[in-house]
């Protein structure tokens, strides 16, 4: 009996069918892999990179939230402080980390909104290298004056600066910081000119302000609340839409005559681009739950920070809007740091 030999056309068709089935199976396995990884997440500690030194307001917020979400996740959240270069050091480390859900970053106004316009070259791309997880905090800014400054109210400050262009100086934690940009916005809206004195951080700036070496500064309550409440610094106005519960007697800057003025230092959590969406969704849910906890709110508000939660999509929209807003101001003022 002659052996069976299928026709060449039939054989080719069969081979094509097998190839299609194999490719389909490969795609199915590939699609299932992220899902399985997300289902198993977390199976090891999660590294939360904080681009500031330990002990500051940003560090306190991250540690507070990390401790709060650890029980729900079943794995430890480990804080990794990577300070330097206006958050660039920490942001660079996370932008190039493996997108497996085990590395996240506290990203703030500098990281996502200001740096892309301040620096000609960045080792990360704010739009492409991260996925937004959710907002976590806002740091209300307060315009304060050294006790011996001759102007006692916001209106008097504006009038004094108008009569003495360039003679009034103001401190900031550094060029391009939210505090610096808030003052640039303030000068822009009030049509005054003052001299910027940048420092390497908020602490030395506040110390010189207390000593009367500089006249004015926008401080966040995390670094300035104690001196404001003790009366060592004169609070002239808060850069928030409404008065702050922590400083109920201090008017908003809008109330002081600068209509619509608003400026915050804000923070959120991001992960490397490509992090599986189910992991992002789970992490966001745990952060939102923690931010609604009375204990977490009390701890954050105790250091002058406003807890703020959002969806990943809301945080992405907010960060992009802030990048556009501050980017326009930076370019209009010609502010650069390199």
TrEMBL record:
PROSITE patterns: TAT (PS51318). It holds the Pfam family TctC. Gene3D superfamilies: Bordetella uptake gene, domain 1, Periplasmic binding protein-like II. Residues 1-37 form the signal peptide. Keywords: Signal. Belongs to the UPF0065 (bug) family. This is Twin-arginine translocation pathway signal. It comes from Cupriavidus pinatubonensis. The lineage of its organism: Bacteria, Pseudomonadati, Pseudomonadota, Betaproteobacteria, Burkholderiales.
């Amino acid at each position: 009996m002659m052996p069976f030999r299928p026709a060449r056309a039939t054989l080719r068709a069969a081979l094509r069918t097998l190839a299609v089935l194999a490719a389909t199976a490969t795609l199915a396995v590939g699609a299932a892999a992220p899902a399985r990884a997300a289902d198993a997440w977390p199976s090891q500690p999660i590294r939360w990179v904080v681009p500031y030194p330990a002990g500051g307001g940003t560090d306190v917020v991250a540690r507070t939230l990390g401790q709060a979400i650890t029980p729900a996740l079943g794995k430890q959240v480990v804080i990794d402080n990577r300070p330097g270069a206006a958050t660039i050091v920490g942001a660079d480390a996370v932008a190039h980390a493996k997108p497996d859900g085990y590395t996240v970053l506290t990203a703030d106004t500098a990281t996502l909104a200001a740096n892309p316009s301040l620096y000609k070259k960045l080792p990360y791309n704010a739009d492409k290298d991260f996925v937004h997880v959710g907002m976590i905090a806002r740091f209300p800014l307060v315009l304060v004056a050294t006790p011996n400054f001759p102007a006692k109210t916001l209106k008097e400050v504006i009038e004094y600066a108008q009569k003495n262009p360039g003679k009034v100086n103001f401190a900031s934690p550094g060029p391009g910081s939210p505090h610096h940009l808030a003052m640039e916005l303030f000068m822009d809206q009030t049509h005054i000119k003052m001299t910027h004195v940048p420092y390497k951080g908020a602490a030395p700036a506040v110390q010189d302000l207390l000593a009367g070496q500089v006249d004015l500064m926008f401080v966040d309550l995390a670094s300035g609340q104690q001196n404001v409440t003790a009366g060592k610094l004169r609070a002239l106005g808060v850069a928030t839409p409404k008065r702050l519960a922590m400083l109920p007697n201090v008017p908003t800057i809008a109330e002081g005559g600068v209509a619509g003025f608003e400026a915050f230092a804000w923070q959120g959590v991001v992960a490397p681009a490509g992090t599986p969406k189910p992991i992002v969704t789970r992490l966001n849910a745990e952060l939102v739950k923690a931010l609604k906890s009375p204990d977490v709110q009390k701890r954050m508000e105790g250091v002058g920070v406003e807890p703020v939660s959002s969806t990943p999509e809301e945080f992405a929209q907010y960060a992009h809007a802030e990048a556009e807003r501050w980017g326009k101001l930076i370019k209009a003022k010609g502010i650069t740091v390199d």
